[in-house]
Specification:
This protein is an all-beta fold. Helices cover 3% and strands 53% of the residues. It has helices at 4-7, 225-232, and strands at 18-23, 26-31, 39-46, 57-61, 70-73, 79-85, 91-98, 101-108, 114-117, 123-132, 143-145, 154-155, 160-166, 168-175, 182-188, 194-200, 203-212, 233-238, 245-247, 250-252, 255-261, 265-274, 283-289, 292-293, 302-308, 312-318, 325-330, 337-339, 342-344, 347-354, 360-366, 369-378, 384-393, 399-404. A hairpin with a 2-residue loop joins strand 7 and strand 8.
Length: 405
């Protein structure tokens, strides 16, 4: 039985080529080509001046293997190496991302001292202006974090900063005392004058009351709910176009506090990994609420609620070569409700759960609503097929059992 990830794009291997080695605390299956020794490539990546490019990201491919994932990074001296290349392959393709741009190379298998030279991309001056959303004027006290570092806050000159950027997608952040902090992704075009305006609104507070079923706190034995929320739960406010992301500034009991701008719509996003009980497989949960708007004339914080989970469940059994994960997602979202005078936000949710060795899985603690269960499975012909099924949990406590022969 081979998992989905390890079998994708892999050539067919005969039983004679499989060597099983049992050792240590776990068995390791090593797939080897006994007919010929595997090849390798190695070398260094340098810039035009011959200086090493540490940390350069490599994507590696050859005929029959087109993984498309990050395969390795250059070490601090710019050195890289790829091992275990099949003997039938004479050359490999290497794609390196440097200065936001891809650089492609062909390297002969067996070349162990290849020198890859990359050139920096052309740059243009870009102007960043931090604007008060209410007055439409620059904020003289604003600070910015600019690429390529994007980690250090620097003062602006009267609300304006200039940075030289290559074409690409860059993260720019801005803040000012009394305003909400924003993070925005900017696309730089070398063919246009680049002036970016980042709007800051006067700070208002969005209070989010997070109500969760008890099982959501049971991550590991001995952990309490507050420790788990701090370490395993990522809650953030986000603009609908995803250009502004605001992390919670503090937590007051069950309430997360977000400093957001008045008159700007924000949704609440959640990413977390939970267990139904300590021995259970982890469940990955992602959700995003409907947008919330704090009025321009608001005099205090806006309090909304977010209730996660319910008492419904979907269970399933998959026959054949089972996938490693099954995904469930809402169809049309979980509607918002009013509880004790607090608007509990509606949301779209997605979860992923592992499938056990018997092909069984379960999604528990679901709220009533419409859902889609989806996964990929290999059929008898060896092809991967996408399967899904839509279900409706119409009443509290409902359980639906599914089966894929």
């Amino acid at each position: 039985k081979v998992s989905e990830n390890s079998s994708r794009h892999a050539p067919v291997i005969s039983p004679e080529q499989i060597h099983v080695h049992e050792g240590g605390e776990r068995g390791v299956v090593i797939l080897t080509d006994r007919e010929a020794s595997p090849g390798a490539v190695a070398g260094h990546i340098v810039d035009e001046e011959g200086l090493p490019v540490p940390g350069a990201k490599f994507y590696f491919s050859y005929p029959g293997y087109l993984d498309g994932k990050l395969n390795t990074q250059a070490d601090p001296e710019g050195a890289f190496a790829f091992m275990g290349i099949p003997a039938s392959v004479s050359e490999v393709s290497l794609r390196v991302y440097y200065d936001q741009q891809p650089h492609d190379f062909l390297v002969a298998v067996g070349e162990m001292d290849a020198e890859l030279v990359v050139s920096p991309s052309p740059r243009v001056p870009c102007t960043v202006v931090v604007i008060d959303v209410a007055t439409a004027q620059p904020i003289p006290t604003a600070e910015v974090r600019l690429p390529p570092d994007s980690k250090t806050w620097e003062p602006t000159q009267g609300g304006t900063a200039i940075v030289d950027l290559a074409e690409g997608r860059w993260l720019i952040s801005a803040r000012a005392s009394g305003y909400n902090e924003t993070h925005t992704f900017q696309i730089v075009s070398l063919e246009e004058e680049n002036v970016f305006e980042i709007e800051l609104g006067v700070v208002a507070e969005l209070h989010v009351l997070v109500a969760m079923r008890e099982w959501l706190g049971q991550l590991l034995p001995g952990e309490n709910l507050e420790e788990w929320r701090t370490r395993a739960m990522d809650v953030f406010a986000v603009a609908p176009d995803m250009t502004q992301v605001i992390e919670s500034s503090r937590m007051e009991g069950d309430v997360l506090v977000f400093p957001v701008g008045r008159g700007v719509p924000f949704a609440v996003g959640v990413r977390m990994t939970v267990r139904e009980y300590p021995e259970a497989a982890p469940v990955e949960v992602e959700l995003k609420t409907e947008p919330v708007l704090i009025p321009e004339d608001a005099t205090g914080p806006l309090t909304v609620g977010l209730r996660l989970g319910g008492d419904c469940a979907v269970r399933g059994n998959i026959s054949g070569l089972v996938p490693s994960k099954v995904r469930i997602s809402t169809r049309g979202g979980i509607p918002g409700v009013l509880e004790d005078g607090i608007a509990m936000l509606g949301y779209e949710e997605e979860r992923r759960v592992s499938v056990d060795e018997n092909g069984e899985f379960a999604f528990s603690a679901l709220a009533p609503g419409a859902y889609r269960i989806a996964f990929r499975r290999q059929n008898l012909e060896g092809d991967w097929e996408k399967l899904h099924e839509d279900v409706l949990l119409s009443a509290p406590g409902e359980v639906i059992d599914l089966e894929w022969p």
